[in-house]
Amino acid sequence: MAGKVLTITSGKGGVGKSTTSANLALGLALSGKKVVAIDLDIGLRNLDMILGLENRIVYDVVNIVEKTCKLNQALIKDKRTENLFLIAAAQTRDKSAVTSEQIKELAEELKKDYDYIILDSPAGIEGGFKNAMEPADEVIIVTTPEISAVRDADRVIGILEANSKTETNLIINRIDPTLVKRGDMMSKDDVLQVLSIPLIGIIPEDKNIVSYTNIGEPSILHKDSKSGMAYKNIIQRLLGKNVEFMEITEDKKGFFQNLVSLFKE
Amino acid sequence: MFFDFFKKNKKTSAEQAKERLRIILAHERAENKAPFLDDLRKDIIEVIAKYIDIDPKSININLQKDQSIEVLEINIPIK
After folding, report:
1. How far is A104 from chain B (nearest CA, A)?
2. Facing B25 at nearest CB: one of A154, A180, A186
3. How far is residue A140 CA from its own chain's centroid?
4. Cβ(A125)–Cβ(A11) below 8 Å
5. Model's pTM, two decimal places?
6. Could you report the per-residue pLDDT of A95-127, keeping only the tens digit for each?
7. Where in chain B are the domains?
């Protein structure tokens, strides 16, 4: 097996990198691919909670590279699928605890047994980001339609180009159709015109993400979730299928429905 | 009608965001691609100023890529 290293990064923090990593890892695993997700935000562990696996952590990525445990011991099995494993970030160390060579070596080792190695990059463009970027075969940049997130994404795109990472795709997260319609948020096309890299997904704003994270169940597990649907489309595209981008529109509720939901409250 | 006239001329905040990004990113991309431009500007001003009376603020240095040709453009207006 020759697996693929897929790095999820963004530049700016808080745009949905870990949520995206969790959904893509779980989605690929549920489509039958063997997946390992590695949280590289050392010192600020997060992916474990989003996936609901925080109680199962004994060893982490620093233990692996420092060889204080075996690789198998640090692979945390997902509750829902046999195909997904997590390698957690160390919580009591910092980004300098691992080098990009070590992560590269680990990724190469994992490529033998897994189809996808998903690297959840920390925010920023320092060491931790480089550790996640250097082993990457493909990079997904996550941004929101906000001015500062787009600016930082552009910076990251520049760095990736300078390092001749050519397989770079964009996810635009948290598109709010009401704000776009009002002219108070850049549209998908606005962002694409500014950044001009290929688009692999658009995710609508989804207030339910907070509750999904609260219970450790990413949106892809929720059948009626709009963001979950958007992530499923991205999975299809990653697997080489041609799926149209969803129309992100406002929820249309008629007067009567509004009245009903008022009484339901 | 009177108010509509003003409304049409006013850009939405999203349009303003796009415009601001276009300007700042054009600048940042050039800088990241050629981080030496600022030093180059300083050196050129120093050398030229030895011989000719110039206004340092009016010097314009630009690195442009036009398909396959990259052009370094330096404009030095003489007083």
Report:
1. 26
2. A154
3. 8
4. yes
5. 0.84
6. 889 999 999 999 999 999 999 999 999 999 999
7. 2-75
